[in-house]
Amino acid sequence: MRRWTARLLALTVVLGVLAVDAEVRADPLPSWNETTSKAQILSFIDQVTDPASPDYVTPAERIAVFDNDGTLWGEKPFYFQLFFAVDKLKELAEQDPAIVNSPAREAAIAGDFEALFAGGEEALLDVIFASHADISVDDFTADVREWLATARHPVTGRRYDGMVYQPMLELLSALRDNGFSTWIVSGGGIHFIRAFADDVYGIPPEQVIGSTVKTVYEVVDGVPVIMKTPAIGFIDDKAGKPVAIDAHIGRRPIFAGGNSDGDFEMLEYVTSGEGPRFGLLIHHTDAARESAYDRDSSVGRLDRGLDEAGERGWLVVDMAEDWAAIYPGP
Amino acid sequence: MRRWTARLLALTVVLGVLAVDAEVRADPLPSWNETTSKAQILSFIDQVTDPASPDYVTPAERIAVFDNDGTLWGEKPFYFQLFFAVDKLKELAEQDPAIVNSPAREAAIAGDFEALFAGGEEALLDVIFASHADISVDDFTADVREWLATARHPVTGRRYDGMVYQPMLELLSALRDNGFSTWIVSGGGIHFIRAFADDVYGIPPEQVIGSTVKTVYEVVDGVPVIMKTPAIGFIDDKAGKPVAIDAHIGRRPIFAGGNSDGDFEMLEYVTSGEGPRFGLLIHHTDAARESAYDRDSSVGRLDRGLDEAGERGWLVVDMAEDWAAIYPGP
How far apart are CA B129 and CA B229, in angstroms? Predict the structure, then answer.
């Protein structure tokens, strides 16, 4: 019985390898133009997955981390999560006008983003906490999903989760098809991203890392829930990203993708490990199809990363040159 | 080519199912006596994995969480991590006697645990930080591994990682063989447990959740590292456990195992979700082979859990009755 089992398992493995081999011969990155960027990515995947390669990496160590805003989906004119916060504040204010109890919330309701931003971080948190605090994680998740299903981006008219980058969806799939685990390490809110990451990116909740508010465990009317509170827990940006990677993953990834200087330390941490490493920066160069910005942008500023990518061996992806498509579908 | 691929994949799946089916007919829990406890566990696994069952759970949602101290390995006469801290303090004091700069550290060096415990949490942290702070995560991990390879438990004479519970190793494997992911949610230190969890339990670093000190990202002599600092980050105990589960996993597990009232909220949270749920408490009843303690123990106190397990439908595992073996090997 045992020998029969072993033979079946061996045959299973062999056939599985053959099937996977035939499958991957199709172009895994059809929305990437045939530039050196695409070639470098595919070469790296080959290098770490070929058992005969001196740079072979076991599947457990094939960990890839990605920023979200500006890397996997858009971030202009400002972070999509802020649109959610403002839309939700308006909805709450209709039910209870008393919630509009500060200049920041008044500015948000009026759509005066200039005035809102002028109030700095304190004003933003005041607006954000209206929808992100004193609510259970389950209810918050439902709110985000309802918003995504109905809200439209003011410039493109698309659903916000329709503004993910098709070439990056393909990269995520290509990595997973080659035994990688794919993670999000975002300055955005962990519960906000988890509400759609599995459906949209194929990334399950446990592989989403983000900024947090403090949460507490409560039994409400006999039902245990996790409540979000109006206090910052952790800011997953800049030097916070490697810290969060250690806390959640506990080993150093071998692949990191970002688009702004908020991702600098993450790429530095990931690409300084031993063995094969890949650092990737999305450079927003495509004013015609998306947006063109870098050193002078308040959202997604990329300055030091551009200066040092060359010497550090990081790939700078030129959206206009390297991508045949931006968004999924027509 | 595509059709050939599809056929190979289909055959692969069929053979895989046959092989797995043959494999699981062997007793997955040989170190569990044939009591109702074992039957309940196996019945639950059947219930959630049988596609024809109304309680079928998809593999992605088959998440099982376990406490560590007293649940997966011993915790007497006190937490093994404290033995590490004291042993390491002695070693550090040999190199630099000036490190013994407090009554707590003096008591620890002298092996006077009564005096050490009398100092409360502050005294314990003072001893623990000597080995757990101002050190990189990589160096700390190496320290733990070196200690595990050489230290011996004062009562059993065993390696500390030889005091894992064989029946629980089998339970972890049985769950994983049935598509579960297995996680540790421990009051112990996250980096301490990660140093051995993969080797000993088959649980990778990213599935270990524990208490933390605050960490920071630093580039030391050009090398980016994560440094542990002498400040408490998060205490993963009691109501902290569901909070940490939400932070790291982001969905409610369906199986939870613990042994003390520190695990109460975790079991409450897990077993209050919809659909099939399993709560398990290890009751240390075996003075002959291990240790017998519950309501009056300072380490691993189990009081409310014993009172409420019945009404909450949690299984209380009686070590003396239910387990044919305690530790692995002879």
Answer: 8
